[in-house]
Amino acid sequence: MRAIVFAARNQKEIVRDPVTLLFGIGLPIVLLGLFSVMQKNMPFALYEMNNLTPGVIVFGFSFLTLFSGMLLGKDKSSSLLMRIFASPMSATDYILGYMLPLLPIALLQIFICLVTAIFLGLSFDKSILLMVLVLMIISLLYIGIGLLFGTLFTDKQVGGIFAIFVNVTTWLSGTWFELDMVGGTFQSIAQLLPFVHAVNAAKATIDGAYGDMLQSLSIVIGYTVFITSISIIVFRRKMQAN
Amino acid sequence: MTINIKGLTKRYKERVAVDQLTLHIQQGEFFALLGQNAAGKTTTIKMLCGLLTPSEGDAIVDGKSIVENPKAVKQILNISPQETAVAPNLTVYENLLLIGQIYGYKKVQAQHQAQVQMDLFGLTPRQRDKAKTLSGGYQRRLSVAMAMMTNPKVLFLDEPTLGMDVRARNDLWNILKQLKGKITIILTSHYLDEVEALADRIGIMHHGQLHALGTLQQLLIETGKRTLEEVFLEKTEEALS
């Protein structure tokens, strides 16, 4: 119950800062439009909607990292968290309170991107519905990373780190180009990180390759559990050392 | 609601922030804790609120130990932190509801209590305004009202009038005077006139230790000084090397 109350407050804080929210939802749509125009002028099928849409939606999730990290970082800098720490809420209540409000935003991002992609030529079938579920699971990874950033850094630092993060996740996710086009160490590093597996899981779902999807998704889930657990442990320590 | 502090100590590696603090605060007492910066006041409050674990010692708040049962202690106290602690994008009313519900109030109960606090703190005309649009004085007022939302048995006010103008301070003093005797209040402040106006008893901390304790009159008689400021300066005087 306390987590729900806190989540409602956090949702209001995010939704009432509409510029960042609109940017997080609007940018993926602009990218879908731009790349679909590029595809029309390309001799090979690199940016076809079925191939591009999963990656662009996952790219949009990096804004969930920004939202959760900034909110937690801001609360930490403003003494509000000290007031909340003095209340009977537990560390799990806090973490749930920061995670839950971002799930409807993730769903909204997915919905708006899918509608845009269908408008631009994505073929709709039941695998799209399954992809929505897979994407919701993937969104937890990005929310968890945001919580870790927010726990460790101030809101201003999170803003700077996000600029690096969004580049790392995009280049190493195989959204804009196949990683084996670069190969070598670049590809090896990308395979060690969860971002390419997140995009692959979504792509495999839309292609109906459910075995590949499960393999990639299990790596993403593993990372999500690991990162969220670290966030909770660090958060607990911060609570006690406040 | 008494607070019985016994040998409370907080150590950070070599530095001792609070050193064997022993103190008894009576139910309904308005107690002022004074000291220079880094004297250990805020660390003491943080330990009593369950925000910091003591290195040694304990405090019994209404029969409950802050070491053994911090969650039960948290349920009966509230704090207005040193810096204004409000949710900036929530309205005045929503900020109050948030605190009430986090402490376990049902929505209707929280709504009623929020109205009581808004009336008490003169916030009703601003109830629909977002906290970030309020002046510093009103934000402070809201911060204290949020601490009062849960009808705490013990209220910690950490420099509640810092940055307020004269009128806003005076308004808050009048509100706090109304609370005297009803709940136990522990105040830290650098404004000695505030302490003189409000406190039943005064403790002066220096280097983590309690250097003086008593009513204003007792402290003046004990030291032979004419003002609290003179008492404070004597009790916190550094030895010249």
Protein traits:
heterodimer, A: about 240 residues, mainly alpha, 11 helices, about 80% helix, globular, B: about 240 residues, alpha/beta, 6-stranded mixed β-sheet, 4-stranded antiparallel β-sheet
Explained architecture:
- The complex is a heterodimer of chains A (242) and B (241).
- With 242 residues, chain A is mainly alpha-helical.
- Chain A has one domain (2-241).
- Helices cover 81% and strands 0% of the residues of chain A.
- Chain A has 11 helices and no strands.
- Chain A has helices spanning 2-15, 18-40, 49-77, 80-85, 91-99, 102-119, 126-152, 155-171, 184-192, 195-207, 210-240.
- In chain A, helix 6 (102-119) packs across helix 7 (126-152).
- The two termini of chain A are 24 Å apart.
- With 241 residues, chain B is of the alpha/beta class.
- Chain B contains 9 helices and 10 strands.
- In chain B, the strands form 2 sheets. A 6-stranded mixed sheet of chain B has the order 6-7-8-3-9-10, with helices on both faces. In chain B, strands 2-1-4-5 form a 4-stranded antiparallel sheet, covered by helices on one side.
- In chain B, helix 3 crosses helix 4 (107-120) and helix 3 (92-102) packs parallel to helix 5 (136-148).
- Classes of the chains: A mainly alpha (242), B alpha/beta (241).
- The interface between A and B is medium-sized, with 24 and 33 residues.
How would you summarize the topology of this molecule?
The complex is a heterodimer of chains A (242) and B (241).
Chain A (H helix, E strand, L loop, with lengths): L1 H14 L2 H23 L8 H29 L2 H6 L5 H9 L2 H18 L6 H27 L2 H17 L12 H9 L2 H13 L2 H31 L2
Helix pairs in contact in A: 1-5, 2-3, 2-6, 3-6, 3-7, 3-8, 3-10, 6-7, 7-10, 7-11, 10-11
Chain B lengths: L2 E10 L2 E11 L4 E6 L5 H8 L7 E6 L2 E2 L4 H7 E4 L11 H11 L4 H14 L15 H13 L5 E5 L7 H14 L4 E5 L3 H7 L2 E6 L2 E6 L1 H8 L4 H8 L6
Parallel strand pairs in B: 3-8, 3-9, 6-7, 7-8
Antiparallel strand pairs in B: 1-2, 1-4, 4-5, 9-10
Helix pairs in contact in B: 3-4, 3-5
